[in-house]
Write a structure and sequence with these properties.
Elements: E1 3-7, H1 20-27, E2 35-39, H2 47-57, E3 63-66, H3 77-82, E4 86-89, H4 94-104, H5 106-115, E5 119-123, H6 125-128, E6 131-136, E7 143-146, E8 151-156, H7 165-174, E9 181-184, E10 188-193, E11 196-202, E12 209-215, E13 218-223, E14 226-228
Parallel strand pairs: 1-5, 2-3, 2-4, 4-5, 6-8, 8-9, 11-14
Antiparallel strand pairs: 1-10, 6-7, 9-12, 10-11, 12-13
Length: 232
């Protein structure tokens, strides 16, 4: 089964004392103690970010690891990643991340891993990347960005966390610069199984996810059913 879990925000980097989204990701693996690989590329492989990942995931039932493109763990990146159960992508500069991934062939390796059952997950840049398109601030202002295209349509993270995200996303869709798609608040996540949206979950009581689409009357959004992770 192919799975992607795209978070609008949250997880260990935003909720270090409330790891329910990260725990949810781990629970989707068939292994009781899955191997999780963190890709901090979008942050420039920040040592602080990597350290916070280990601090969080060493508290959970898993085997944490990471891949830095600036300090390669091995020469065979494909073999390294294909052995993992979960690949977790951090936030940061989406555009720079995608350029580096393509230079190293990670875009192709990640697709192969996904098609072979490795769970892909991430927040912000680590969520935008899986869709065809997304809203990014990688260039200093919010604008459209072409991504990997594993999932159809567009995605906008931090929908409630940054005031300009919602109006810019609506405008870009109305101007046909982005396809219709989905948006997620900080603390909300979209869980896809085999290319289809399976469910939306949240770590925060008010966190929501939305389907955003164009109509003759303008861009509209429909709130999706969200399952609070306290119910799991």
């Amino acid at each position: 089964m192919k799975q992607i879990i795209a978070m609008g925000g949250g997880g260990f980097s935003m909720e270090p004392d409330h790891l329910v989204l990260d725990q949810y990701i781990l629970e989707q693996s068939v292994r009781s103690k899955p191997e999780v690989c963190f890709l901090p590329t979008a942050s420039g492989d920040s040592e602080n970010y990597i350290s916070r990942f280990y601090q969080a995931f060493q508290r959970l039932e898993c085997k944490p690891d990471h891949l830095s493109l600036f300090k390669l763990p091995c020469s065979d990146l494909r073999s390294f990643l294909m052995k993992k159960d979960i690949i977790y992508v951090g936030g940061g500069n989406t555009r720079n991340m995608l350029v580096l991934w393509k230079e190293w062939g990670l875009d192709l390796i990640l697709r192969e891993a996904w098609e072979n059952g490795v769970i892909l997950a991430g927040l912000s840049a680590g969520a935008i990347c899986w869709f065809e398109e997304g809203v990014t601030d990688s260039a200093g202002d919010l604008r459209e960005l072409q991504a990997l295209g594993f999932l159809p349509g567009s995605f906008c993270p931090h929908y409630d966390g940054e005031a300009e995200r919602r109006p810019v996303y609506h405008r870009l869709i109305s101007e046909n610069k982005l396809q219709e798609g989905y948006a997620a608040d900080d603390g909300a996540a979209l869980h896809y199984k085999n290319d289809q949206l399976f469910r939306s979950v949240s770590s925060r009581e008010m966190a929501k996810s939305y389907r955003v689409f164009d109509t003759e009357e303008g861009v509209r959004e429909t709130e999706l059913p969200v399952i609070p992770l306290s119910e799991f």
